[in-house]
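[job 4471] stage=fold_predict status=RUNNING
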Amino acid sequence: MTVAHEQLPLGNEQPGWTEPVRLFSCTPSRLGTWPDCPRRYRFTYVDRPVPPKGPPWAHNSVGATVHSALAAWWDLPLERRTPTAAAALVRSKWIGLGFRDESQSLAWGDRAADMVARYVAALDPEQVPVGIERTVGMATDALAFSGRIDRLDRRDDGLVVVDYKTGRHVLSTDDTRGSLALALYALAAARTLRSRCVRVELHHLPTGDVHAWDHTEQTLARHLQRAHDLAAEIQAAREFPAQPGPMCGWCDFSAHCPEGRAAAAPKASWAGLAEDLSPLE
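[job 4471] inference complete, writing structure tokens
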């Protein structure tokens, strides 16, 4: 037990002693949920038991399968780290939840397999990452942060945070630069592995695009301050109002939020899939 969390017996406080500040335990998802919608934050992290969620999303099934297959690919013997093996891993790990029907699931299984095969074809199978689905963590004066990084590379004199993306949203360097999660991953990776980590990358598998950003001490410090500010807001909150808008249709807790349902009708569980199923170029 660390001193920061130790409870001293009442009446034994030393002169000048002040009660230690309880660290706010968080992940990137927890911090990111608050500014999106305090009501959804309450449903996810405060209410117990957690209210029942809606049906699983097909695009999440695609993402989870791709992440699982890519992690398993690096565990294969070197001679088996091929595009063909990557595609086979996608098919063996396929999650067929949230799709309109079996036909749509099969079509997207083929697309995901092709997506992953094309991606690994550009990788050097001998350059094994430092971490695959690696959990990192750090403590600050206010936060106890932890998170899991898709892939952590060692290049030149430092570590590189790699985050896989499989959604239909077209990404840009601004997404990488502005990502609080990636910045916190970089800070936590540096502390966990005691190595410099300033470069973060988003790898968009549907297009094969890589969007990279090299942080400075100043930009990382700004992101960390942003995390501290969010934590302070959350800890001070006594109410958790909904923030109705178009995104409410994508909320897992739409059934429990009248304001959200009034703002946007719930989306079909396969609505997050790209409409174009043509082979990737």
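[job 4471] summary: DSSP finds nine helices and six strands in the chain.
[job 4471] exit 0
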